[in-house]
Amino acid sequence: MDSGAIAQFLPLILIFAIMYFLLIRPQQKKVKEHQKMVDQLRVRDQVVTQGGLIGKVSKVKEDGEIEVEIADGVKVRVIKATIAQVLSKTDPVS
């Protein structure tokens, strides 16, 4: 390969490198943080779902679901991955 061919591919390589550091890498980090947050959910944590519901976790199931109490006696099943934010965290059981 001569230097002319390398010079033609250099801009494409630079664009890919910039895209990786500005878009792909931060998104992967955000996904890892969300997964860690979801894995650490405990009973009595106050959470917000992606649909905007606020409630307290009443049961954590192993099949990717949690049970969230959104009002007194009103419980809904929610997929863990749809939890957008944990508002208040309970202390782990020692």
UniProtKB/TrEMBL annotation:
One BP annotation, GO: protein transport
Keywords tagged on the record: Cell membrane, Membrane, Protein transport, Translocation, Transmembrane, Transmembrane helix, Transport
Sequence intervals crossing the membrane: 6-24
Pfam families assigned: YajC (PF02699)
Domain of life: Bacteria
Cellular component terms (Gene Ontology): plasma membrane
NCBIfam families with a match to the protein in the record: yajC
Functional description taken from the UniProt entry: The SecYEG-SecDF-YajC-YidC holo-translocon (HTL) protein secretase/insertase is a supercomplex required for protein secretion, insertion of proteins into membranes, and assembly of membrane protein complexes. While the SecYEG complex is essential for assembly of a number of proteins and complexes, the SecDF-YajC-YidC subcomplex facilitates these functions.
Protein name per UniProt: Sec translocon accessory complex subunit YajC
Protein species of origin: Leisingera methylohalidivorans DSM 14336
